[in-house]
Amino acid sequence: MKKTDKIFVAGHRGMVGSAVVRALVREGYANVVTRTHAELDLLDPCAVRAFYETERPDVAVIAAARVGGIGANSAANALFLYENEMIALNTVWAAAEAGVKRLLFLGSTCIYPRLAPQPIPEEALLTGELEKTNEGYALAKISGLKLCEFLRRDRGLCYHSLMPTNLYGPGDNYDLVGGHVLPTMVRKFEEARVRGDATVPLWGTGSPLREFLHVDDLAAACLFVLNLDNPPDLLNVGSGEEVSIRDLAEQVRAATGCPATIDWDVTKPDGTPRKLCDTSRIRALGWKPAISLAEGLARTVSDYRTECAEHRVRMGHR
Ligand code: GFB
After folding, report:
1. 203 CB less than 6 Å from ligand 1?
2. Which residue, 24, 159, 153, is CA-closest to 89?
3. pLDDT average, residue stretch 134-138
4. Which atom of ligand 1 is nearest to the CA of 110?
5. Is the CB of 51 under 6 A from ligand 1?
6. b/e map of 21-49 (b: 16 or more CB within 10 Å)?
7. Would the pTM of this model clear 0.90, i.e. be above it?
8. pLDDT tens string 216-228
9. How would you class 230 by CB atoms within 10 Å of its CB: exposed for 0-12, middle for 13-18, buried for 19 or more?
10. Domains and CATH numbers, the chain
11. Which residues are catalytic?
12. Is the CB–ligand 1 distance for residue 111 below 6 Å?
């Protein structure tokens, strides 16, 4: 990727897209193109096609998606399938039709089977049943990454994908029902501390294992792979640090300084029991994460307090 390339970042207002734009600008890529949802509806194939034909970017980064935590996904698998499928097919297919030479598609490690071997290698794709709570989202992301793979094979276009583990960072969604576990915990413990609540309600048993990656590390990985001449079709991106939900809760409690005890609601789903991705492939190519969970958590609590003070905490999927 050249510094003068015109780079379209789809989803630049989201947590991932905004981190990618920050990283591009910091690294001196001056020609970044974005569109708000009001300016370009990515669910509309004609509008997406017209956009690419007018703008003709050299590179596209597809960071747009309807995303959410286990609550949002399990309550609306149809919506997560439909919107993410449309976004993936429209943004990738129309890019190819308009002659965009390079495209990076972003997915999620929930594309892998629920009971995949751990840590999950890229080869585990399509070897078993998906986790039911996010089956719609996973199917859409599988379509997107396969479309990139097929276009590369059929037309020689350098379209490739990154599958990040659970992400967190600035601009995250702090919705108590629809958000992911890490930001939701930060908000729950912080609000309990401020209100002086005796308990904090959390979901499930606390036993599932998860891996968390700071979004600035993902953004660095995006730039890293976009600068490879011949990247693999699919690469996992993760921190390699695995933590139980129970341990995460203790770490968030400590980071917020909240004395409340935890009340586990076991009627809420645990989701997949374990989701640690194998990052040996991207590490062998030369990328590694820079932000530990402890450091990222401290930053997140501080960012959340600033966002609250400035009345700009995001609570919703976009
Ligand atoms: O982050 P999370 O919503 O998503 O939940 P997944 C992770 C774990 O945290 C689950 C537990 O075991 C939850 O039961 N948990 C405990 C909580 N307390 C809470 C809480 O207050 N809120 C939430 N949200 N969880 C998502 C997928 O799966 O991961 C998406 O649904 C996406 O498709 C994303 O891929 C990365 O890790 O289970």
Report:
1. yes
2. 159
3. 97
4. 35
5. no
6. bbbbeeeebeebbbbeeeebbbeeeeebb
7. yes
8. 999 999 999 999 9
9. exposed
10. 7-309 (3.40.50.720)
11. 137
12. no
